[in-house]
Specification:
Layout (H helix, E strand, L loop, with lengths): L2 H23 L6 H46 L15 H22 L1 H9 L9 H47 L8 H39 L3
Helix pairs in contact: 1-2, 2-6, 3-4, 3-5, 3-6, 5-6
Subcellular location: Cell membrane; Membrane
Function: Key component of the proton channel; it plays a direct role in the translocation of protons across the membrane.
Membrane topology: Multi-pass membrane protein
Length: 230
């Protein structure tokens, strides 16, 4: 088992444990950890699902959106945890799996709410367009909706997490070099690279949350586009 697989399993287990602890030990008067977890759940419900899909549709698909948000967040956070040091989303497998899941959810929601033919019609045949233009527009809509859309989800998450990992690695390697290998006054640069590493660690925490939010909100947007006929 390689390091990336181990990281992903560790963070998946951490996510499941946190969820089980919340379900089995939730109290009427919440403690600090319960408050944080419930705030995140409320954020997913109100600021993502209901804001994009509306109250009725938001409640119907909030569990899917919450699952995506927390899974992406936990996988991202592996990149700043000592001993793991690599986000589960910093290699193609996990971002691709998440993008495919969101893509399938988009299709399933559209078929569920509209029916198969009506869903395809709403996605591939824009209304109020002269029929002859469909010869050009329908292939473009097909590529944009069913190929480009999941690909951009995949690339956006992967690129952001890889770039953050490279920056953090560069500062830590620089710190190691200046502190242990450099001579004389050059060792002082180790303080600068260490400060940069700490700053990038805090920044990566923000990026981990932001990328989870973006991935979840784009999933909600795509669901919204699939459940309503244009």
């Amino acid at each position: 088992m390689n390091a990336v697989t181990t990281n992903r399993l560790v963070m998946l287990v951490a996510f499941v444990v946190c969820a089980l602890l919340y379900v089995t030990r939730a109290k009427v008067v919440p403690g600090r950890a319960q408050t944080v977890f419930e705030s995140a759940l409320l954020f997913c419900r109100e600021s993502i699902a209901e804001q994009i899909l509306g109250r009725t549709m938001g409640r119907k698909y909030e569990k899917h959106i919450m699952s995506i948000f927390f899974l992406v967040l936990f996988m991202n956070l592996a990149g700043i945890i000592p001993g793991l040091n690599l986000a589960g989303t910093a290699l193609p497998g996990m971002p691709l799996l998440l993008a495919v899941f969101s893509w399938l959810l988009f299709i399933w929601a559209g078929i569920r709410e509209q029916g198969g033919l009506k869903f395809l019609k709403s996605q591939l045949f824009p209304p109020n367009v002269p029929w002859v233009l469909y010869i050009l527009l329908t292939p473009i809509e097909f590529v944009s909706t069913f190929i480009v859309r999941p690909f951009t989800l995949f690339v956006r998450l992967l690129a952001n997490m890889v770039s953050g990992h490279f920056l953090l690695t560069l500062t830590l390697v620089g710190t190691n070099f200046f502190v242990f290998s450099a001579l004389g006054a050059m060792k002082g640069f180790g303080l600068l690279t260490l400060a940069a590493a700490l700053a990038f660690t805090l920044f990566e925490m923000l990026v981990a949350f932001l990328q989870a939010y973006i991935f979840a909100i784009l999933t909600a947007v795509y669901i919204n586009l699939s459940v309503h006929a244009h």
